[in-house]
């Protein structure tokens, strides 16, 4: 079994880190370059940088900001936002990203998953799924959670796994920013459905929530934002807690 990972997420809009609740009511959380460097010092296992307005505004992730963040960190680094082509992926990897993540573009053009995996390797391709529980089912949402689709989350997870995705970043919109805990049911369902790592996102508020998402949720990694950005929890303290609870965590 692979050691579990803790991943701070930098949601960036207009060059600043932001965080909201249920994908709304965004507030400023600081400079992404400074935060990225801080989390690297605190022994985060990876970083995730998401340009959250890139798809909505129909523009591309800025490679220059990626370069600046990469210069200040020494841990694996995933970047996403408005990525739609092999050339864009190449530029972002050249700028210092270790992996890229796609979300809305993959739903719109499912062939991108296999194209990127074939060109750069599955290990570079993280497919993000924004999912919402509605009318008794979990559905896929796109465009920063603003557009619903009729696609069942389980069906989409199976498809992207078969197409060559290396990891799935699963965010529950119902839980995002609430600090009431991760969506354990859909996380465990997807984790058992695919044979690639699943990163759980949305709802972290206490150290116990991380324990539950690793044990009951069967997640391979847990991603969080506001609890780290606003210094409610330190990564080192969280890792020590998880080790004491018998969970194998990266050092």
Highlighted features:
251 residues, alpha/beta, TIM Barrel, eight-stranded parallel beta barrel
How would you characterize this protein structure?
The chain has 251 residues and is α/β, with parallel strands linked by helices. The protein is 35% helix and 28% strand. The protein has an 8-stranded parallel barrel, surrounded by 6 helices. Strand 8 and strand 9 (147-152) form a beta hairpin. The radius of gyration is 16 Å and the shape is globular. Residues 20-25 have low confidence and may be disordered.
The major pleated sheet works out as:
8 strands, parallel, barrel
CATH homologous superfamily placement: Aldolase class I
What percentage of residues falls in helices of 4 or more residues? Answer: 25-40%
Write down the CATH class. Alpha Beta
What's the CATH topology name? TIM Barrel
The dominant shape is globular
Task: Estimate nothing, just give the exact number of structural domains.
Answer: 1
Trace the largest sheet across and list its strands: 1-4-5-6-7-10-11-12
Q: Runs with pLDDT <50, length 5+?
A: 20-25
